[in-house]
Amino acid sequence: MTDEWRGWREAAQAALYGDEGFYRSPVRSPKGPAGHFRTSVHASPLFAGAVARLLTGIARELNTGTVALVDVGAGRGELLTGVLEALDAGPEGPDVAPYAVEVAARPPGLDTRIEWCAEPPAGVTGLLFANEWLDNVPVEVAEADAEGVPRYVEVRTSDGAERLGAPVTGADAAWLERWWPLSAPGERAEIGRPRDAGWAGAVGSLTAGLAVAVDYAHGRDARPPFGTLTGFRGGREVRPVPDGSCDVTAHVALDACAAAVTEAGADVRTELTDQRAALRRLGVGGDRPPLSLATTDPAGYVTALAAAGEAAELTARGGLGDFGWLLHRVGLPEPG
Ligand SMILES: C[S@@+](CC[C@H](N)C(=O)[O-])C[C@H]1O[C@@H](n2cnc3c(N)ncnc32)[C@H](O)[C@@H]1O
């Protein structure tokens, strides 16, 4: 790690995905992402169960035999493992080809059915799912200077100190103008172009099926005026320092990602909703079991109560329930 000043995109790319990077180094992250923060995947197996139902529904619509389940930014393969377990435990499900797309190495002992790869497989049909991937795709940060001119923010690797660099121009300036205009001095934005391109590429790998991105998100009508760039380490939010010691993340302009997919010319039907609505549709609600169950089936009551608590966490306002769900049906008609 050096003392040089760089834009946030280059600095975060090295800090997260370089040889000694936060997501690559088994020393820094021996337990993978789960050792540093809790995603919906870790919060409850109900999440994997819901994805299993989503996959089963898409397989039924596609009616093509084997369906791919592509998990982009798969961590240690926890979601795929959970989905396979849910399918194995349920009534006869679809024949699934699971792919983990991940920059980190394949963890030992992973289900041998899971193929570990660096890029999404091209030309598959099925479900492509990306839970908290896009917020980890590095982006440039811009800040309006004293005259209101957006400039790139440069960061020092060693301690995370920042200074303003050159004015933002070209495609980045056009993106800001369209998706996250800055005017008042001190306002900041994260320039989501690499996420737009990454997501459009991932969706483009599907010949037919459903692509879903789930992430911390904001829309054009409610961008946070000072941005959302932050760090996580060991379960705590920390100041983002791009030295490989912590996660570096920023919420996602999912509306811009959606437009990039449409503009790439794919045959898609797009929906942007939140996790609360999406999971409710998949049968994950926060309703408590009836109290009468406690007397007729005490063990069943306790199990149902625990599940209701987990569902409530996954769908909570001000928490995971506010996450954005961006869904693209590729080569499929509007749902009936
Ligand atoms: C926040 S973690 C989420 C892990 C998992 N999806 C979950 O929800 O628990 C983001 C993961 O995306 C991976 N990742 C980031 N960029 C990637 C890329 N371009 N290709 C593959 N994996 C990537 C990181 O290595 C990390 O494991």
SSE inventory with pairings:
Blueprint (H helix, E strand, L loop, with lengths): L4 E3 H10 L22 H4 L1 H18 L4 E6 L5 H12 L6 E6 L13 E3 L6 E8 L8 E5 L5 E7 L5 E6 L2 H10 L8 E4 L1 H12 L1 E10 L14 E4 L2 E3 L8 E3 L4 H10 L4 E7 H7 L11 H4 L1 H17 L9 E7 L6
Parallel strand pairs: 2-3, 2-5, 3-4, 5-10
Antiparallel strand pairs: 1-7, 6-7, 6-9, 7-8, 10-15, 11-12, 11-13, 14-15
Helix pairs in contact: 3-4, 6-7
The structure holds S-adenosylmethionine (SAM).
The site of S-adenosylmethionine has 18 residues, from helix 4.
How would you characterize the overall build of this protein?
With 336 residues, the chain is α/β, with parallel strands linked by helices. The chain has two domains: 31-139 and 192-217 and 252-330, Rossmann fold (3-Layer(aba) Sandwich); 141-188, no CATH class. The protein contains ten helices and 15 strands. The strands form three sheets. It has a seven-stranded mixed sheet, sandwiched between helices. Strands 1, 6, 7, 8 and 9 form a five-stranded antiparallel sheet that branches. α3 (45-62) packs across α4 (78-89) and α6 crosses α7 (254-263). The mean pLDDT is 94. The protein binds S-adenosylmethionine (SAM).
